[in-house]
Amino acid sequence: AHGENIRLLTADEAVGFGFSWSPDGKFILGRTAVTQNRRRLNQVKIFDTQTASYEIIVDKSRGIQGLPQWSSDGSQIVYVNKGKALVSSSPKLTKKESQQSKPIVYAVMDELYQLDPETNNTKKLADFEGRMIFNLSPSPDGQKVSFQIQGLGLHVMNSDGSGLQQIGNGEKASWMPGGNYAIVSVTQDDGYNITDADLYAVEVQSGVYTLLTGHVDMPALKPAVSPDGKSVLFDNPDDGNIYRLRLE
């Protein structure tokens, strides 16, 4: 977390896009790409962060949609294959008896669904009629979910499908502990390239934005809040580096 001891975990094609940590910090879940006979296939893998070993959860497929997700207790993996949500696991992933995995909200194209990993039951929450859903992010307590809708900006909704509200034009929302605030990137562009980007804290209930990087002379993209909520990492596309901003 302090920027030292950088080591290569994998060089798989496309694995860097949308990867996610397991709740216990032992594994990273990724969707990799494999090219065979000029056809692009995808795999779902988990990588052990200590040994750099990996396990294939879903082998080469053309049907995988979106990004795989962890269940809230980290014992299962949920992915969408040909429009259907499926649950998988591994002997490496353990579950505490006292823990119960919470329902997971996921997107398929322009529709939102909820999956209960305990029962494998799914229900449709919303349909945005041709407008793609992306950058979906659940709150730490699993009670809310944020996402962007093509052409309609950033939205927040309760995980049961109620309380849908638009809260602005931020991108890549990363939740603060407690679920009352999210950190987002607000960008400007010239029609071809991003010309500026700042981080804002958004109070999800009111939609009020507070500027965090007014003193920072660089674009700030892809915010990632630390689990303790004391800092946020962001990407500067101009120099390719990752920076940390302390939060107060």
Describe this structure in words.
- 0% of the residues lie in helices and 53% in strands.
- With 248 residues, it is mainly beta.
- The chain is globular, with a radius of gyration of 18 Å.
- The mean pLDDT is 91.
Short précis:
It is globular and about 45 Å long.
Oligomer state equals single chain
For the terminal residues, how far apart are their CA atoms? 18 Å
Task: Give the biggest beta sheet.
Answer: 4 strands, antiparallel
**In terms of structural class, how would the helical and strand content be classed?**
mainly beta
C-alpha geometry: globular
Flag low-confidence runs.
none
Q: State the strand order across the main sheet.
A: 1-2-3-4
What is the C-alpha radius of gyration, as a whole number of Å? Answer: 18 Å
Mean pLDDT: 91
- How much helix is in the residues? under 10%
- In terms of DSSP E residues, the strand content is over 45%
H/E element sequence = EEEEEEEEEEEEEEEEEEEEE
Count of DSSP helices?
A: 0
Q: How many beta-strand elements? A: 21
Give the arrangement of secondary structure elements.
Blueprint: E1 20-21, E2 27-36, E3 39-48, E4 54-61, E5 64-70, E6 77-81, E7 84-88, E8 104-108, E9 111-116, E10 121-127, E11 133-138, E12 144-149, E13 153-158, E14 165-168, E15 171-175, E16 181-189, E17 194-203, E18 208-211, E19 221-225, E20 231-236, E21 241-246
Antiparallel strand pairs: 1-2, 2-3, 3-4, 5-6, 6-7, 8-9, 9-10, 11-12, 12-13, 13-14, 15-16, 16-17, 17-18, 19-20, 20-21
List its traits:
248 residues; 4-stranded antiparallel beta sheet; 0% helix; mainly beta; single chain
